[in-house]
Amino acid sequence: MSDPQTTSVPGRIMAAEMAEQPAVLQRILDEGAPKIREIASQIAARNPRFVLLTARGTSDNAALYAKYLIEVLLGKPAGLTSMSTTTAYGAKPDLTDVLVITVSQSGGSPDLVASTKAAREAGAITLAVTNNADSPLAEVSEFHIDVLAGPEKALPATKTYTAELLALYLLIEGLRGSDGAAAKVLPELAAQILARQSEVKALAERYRFAQRLVITSRGYGYPTAREAALKLMETTYIPASPFSGADLLHGPLAMVDNVSPVIAIVPDGKGGEALQPVLDRLRGRGADLVVVGQRDQVEAASAGFALPAGVPEEVQPILEILPLQLLAYEVTIARGQDPDAPRALAKVTETH
C-alpha cells in the first residue's frame, strides 16, 4: 500500500484504512469469533422461521451478501427490508420468531434505530451488527456484534465493509453449527492482494476519463458488484451501474457497445459458471471487459486482476472487493480528486 503518513497526500486516510484490513480480519477471527459463536448459539436455539436484513448504503451490500449465505447455507428464506414501511407508513407486521439483523457501521441512523426498535416490539429476535458497541442501534437490539474495525475516518467505507462481511459469515456459520474454518486464510490472502497495488494502478488508467461504467456478477459476487459501483461513484463521481448478470441480459445489455467499459466479478464456483453466458455476450459486443476473479477468465478478457484460487466461494467476496477498493482509490487520484473527502457526503448519514 502507498505510504499514508504524509498529511498533504490526497487519499492518505483511505489508503491507511484499506491497509488495515488484514489486521482487522485477523482481529475478528481471534477476538470476535468466540462471541459471535455464542450469540449464534443463542439465536439458533430459538429456531427463527426466517430472516430479515435491514441496512443502508455499504452495509446494505453486506446485508445482501448475508442473504445469499442464509438462503444457500441455512436453507432459510431471507429478505431485505424496506424501512419506510415502518418508519413512514407505520406498518406493523407480525415478526414473531423472525430474526431481524440490522447492519450499520455507525449504528446511528434514526431510521435503522426506529425500525429495529419496532421489530423488537413486534416480536422479532433483533441483532445489530455495527462498528460501534455504544451506538443507539446496539442499545435497542437484543443482541449485538461488534465488527472490531476500529475508528474509520475516511468517508468511503473500506475496512468496515470487509469486517461486516466476515462477521456475518461467522454468524451464519455459527447458526448452522459450523466453525467457519474457511475464513482462516483470509487475512494472509488479503495482505497479498493489497500488496499488488501497482497492478491496480495500471488498470486505473483505463478509467481516468471514463464517462460511465457497468459492473456485473452473479451469485455471491453480486454484492461485490454493487459495493464496487458504490465505491467508484462516491469517490470518482463516474456513474457506475451494477447489474446481476441475469438482469443485464434482460435489456440493459443494449447500452453496452465496443467502447463501453465493463468490470465483471467472476467468482470461482457456481456464480462464475452462471456468469459465463454473460461474458460471452459481452465479448461478442466488443465490450472493454476487465475481469476480477478467476485467472482463466482474466486471461480471456481485455485486462483484469486474478484472485487466489482454491478459496471457498462463500468467502470470496471478502477478497473480491479489495482490488476494487484500490481501483476506486487509484482512479480518484488519477482524476485529481481526494478520495478521503467526496463531495456532499457525511460519515454518518441520518435518514428517517
Please give the structural blueprint:
Blueprint (H helix, E strand, L loop, with lengths): L11 H8 L1 H25 L4 E6 L1 H18 L3 E3 L3 H4 L10 E7 L5 H12 L3 E6 L5 H5 L2 E4 L12 H17 L10 H9 L2 H8 L8 E5 L3 H16 L3 E5 H5 L11 E6 L3 H15 L3 E6 L1 H6 L2 E4 L9 H19 L18
CATH topology of the largest domain: Rossmann fold
- Euclidean distance between termini CA atoms: 38 Å
Tally of separate domains: 2
Q: CATH first level of the largest domain: which class? A: Alpha Beta
Portion in beta strands: 5-15%
Radius of gyration: 20 Å
Largest beta-sheet characterization: 5 strands, parallel
Please identify the structural class as seen in this structure: alpha/beta
Write the H/E string, N to C. HHEHEHEHEHEHHHEHEHEHEHEH
Q: Count the beta strands.
A: 10
Spatially, the strands of the biggest sheet line up as 2-1-3-4-5
CATH architecture of the largest domain: 3-Layer(aba) Sandwich
Q: Given the C-alpha coordinates, what overall shape results?
A: globular
For the residues shown, what is the average pLDDT? 92
Helix content: 40-55%
Helix tally equals 14
Give the CATH H-level superfamily of the largest domain.
Glucose-6-phosphate isomerase like protein, domain 1
Low-pLDDT stretches are 2-7
Verbal overview:
With 352 residues, the chain is an alpha/beta fold. It folds into two domains: 12-186, Glucose-6-phosphate isomerase like protein, domain 1 (Rossmann fold); 196-334, 3-Layer(aba) Sandwich (Rossmann fold), CATH 3.40.50.10490. Helices cover 47% and strands 15% of the residues. It has 14 helices and ten strands. The protein has helices at 12-19, 21-45, 57-74, 84-87, 110-121, 136-140, 159-175, 186-194, 197-204, 221-236, 245-249, 270-284, 295-300, 316-334; strands at 50-55, 78-80, 98-104, 125-130, 143-146, 213-217, 240-244, 261-266, 288-293, 303-306. A five-stranded parallel beta sheet has the order 2-1-3-4-5, with helices on both faces. Helix 12 (270-284) links the parallel strand 8 and strand 9. Helix 2 runs parallel beside helix 7 (159-175). It starts with 11 loop residues before the first helix and ends in an 18-residue tail after the last helix. Residues 2-7 have low confidence and may be disordered.
